[in-house]
Amino acid sequence: MSAVSSHVVVGPAPAAAGQPLLQIRGVETFYGKIQALKGVDMDVHEGEIVTLIGANGAGKSTLMMTICGNPRARAGQILFRGEDIAQMPTHAIMTREIAQSPEGRRIFGRMTVLENLQMGTTLVGQEHFDEDLRRVFDLFPRLKERTSQRGGTLSGGEQQMLAIARALMGRPKLLLLDEPSLGLAPIIVKQIFDVIRELNRTEGLTVFLVEQNAFHALRLAHRGYVMVNGRITMTGTGRELLSREEVRSAYLEGGHH
Ligand SMILES: Nc1ncnc2c1ncn2[C@@H]1O[C@H](COP(=O)(O)OP(=O)(O)OP(=O)(O)O)[C@@H](O)[C@H]1O
């Protein structure tokens, strides 16, 4: 555990001038008759890392998937650069500089690392392939040593790195990450969160991170939102939320720090 406690809180995000990159307004999502999201509002500004935390079943993954158009929002708006993408098909949303690393790191198990990374370029083409490959190998040297290894034979941490690397190959402006720490050893979680911080600091990549690991997520993020039963109940800077008693007792018990 000591390895992870060396995380440093990132500095403030660049001034949140103008329109947010992503604006979520009154979003409601249903699975049949079950209402999973009950009017969610959220902003993500360019250059920010924003995290959404909450218990199992709160609706975090549903919000991330709704941003990607599957399931579709039944009400509300999802504005990306001011354009409402809420009713667009997923493939159209994914051509708008949004990339997702889904929960459960759905990489292609029978394809090699290199082939998985090629899949990430489907929507942007091969023009910058070599340059982008060098970039993800710099970020994740472990993948470079395993280019011809099948995805399914990688460790959990390597699969997570591959899922993020594949998303980055699409040159996103907004990176959506669903539970990148799930099931991983603390030292690997630290490596992955360090890379996210680095991408944000050096390239200004905007990141929306869904996490159950509230301690790490709130230390990494500029701002956070807490979701309970499909509603946002609290928001603040990562630091503010970490110091709130309600957050500490609900999400930080159990020796994360
Ligand atoms: N495909 C589905 N069909 C029906 N109900 C679903 C489906 N997916 C999720 N739900 C329900 O929607 C609610 C929100 O689930 P969701 O997976 O978004 O929560 P979560 O906060 O991401 O939880 P976790 O951290 O466990 O992934 C839960 O009540 C869940 O049971």
TrEMBL record:
The processes (GO biological process) annotated in the record are: L-amino acid transport
For this protein, the record's InterPro entries field holds: AAA+_ATPase, ABC_branched_ATPase_LivF/BraG, ABC_transporter-like_ATP-bd, ABC_transporter-like_CS, BCAA_Transport_ATP-bd_LivF, P-loop_NTPase
| Pfam family of the protein (one) | ABC_tran
State the SUPFAM superfamilies in the record: P-loop containing nucleoside triphosphate hydrolases
Residue ranges of domain ABC transporter in the record: 22-254
- List, in alphabetical order, the Gene Ontology terms for molecular function in this entry: ATP binding; ATP hydrolysis activity; branched-chain amino acid transmembrane transporter activity
Residues in the signal sequence: none
Query: Which keywords describe this protein according to UniProt?
Result: Amino-acid transport, ATP-binding, Nucleotide-binding, Transport
Report the family membership.
Answer: Belongs to the ABC transporter superfamily.
Report what the protein is called: Branched-chain amino acid transport system ATP-binding protein
